[in-house]
Input
Amino acid sequence: MAKPRGLGRGLASLIPDKGSSEVGQETGIVEILVNLIDPNPFQPRKHFSPTEIAELSQSILAVGILQPILVRPVDARYQLVAGERRVRAAQAAGLDRVPAVIRSVSDAESMEIALVENLQRRDLNPIEEAYAYWRLSEELGWTQEAIGTRVGKSRSHIANLLRLLGLTDSIQGQISRGELSVAHAKVLLSVPEERREVLARRAVSEEWTVKRLQWEADHSPSTKVSAGDEVDVHLRALEVTLRRNLGTRVVLRGNSGKGTIEIPYHSVDELERFLELLQGDRGSDPGFVV
Output
């Protein structure tokens, strides 16, 4: 994958200080009509807190918009690159114009700014954060190491968040709304897919702690064993331990004498993470890696 070309100095380098001599020029700060501004299609944030928008709106009424938004020209209109909260708050405050910096940036640059700046603010929910990493990786070709360097996160943290995207939409919604934590998601990812929905619903409705969810995951039957099959309790216990440590489904087949270990993986990065764990390189990231 390509290394991030980046915009070098980041968003700040694209927005001149209000005292700059560029103010009023095309490349400086200008006032533009709010109704000519379209949202950024690459915005990773899907939820904007009404309370936060209302508070920002009151601040704008009191002291104005202290930092201009960043837009790019698209046909006869403007498309947001950064500043959607300020635009929403300005609309709530009844303003018809906002200060803006106009820059001609490509789709890739607009995506990069939107994703990286939101990730650096660290106020995305876990699913929004995971999708932002996914877009930087899949659409811009960044490696997980490159993403981590740019946003100040470890590779294991990024890999663990990306695994959330393997959960169903309904479970992702529960995580986005804060009904389930990332730690709950770790447990759900360690059980077979057919059990996840039921466990997730019960965890939310019965307000399970992570410890309770882990207990239910470990003790609820995951497979039906025929009368002729022998279950090695020691292998099952080891299987549970491996699932916890790797944060994914692990299946041991065989007996105490010989057998096989099945560990599914969905990317080379995830495979490398498993190898590091199995080799004892556990790192310091407190996420899924234990």
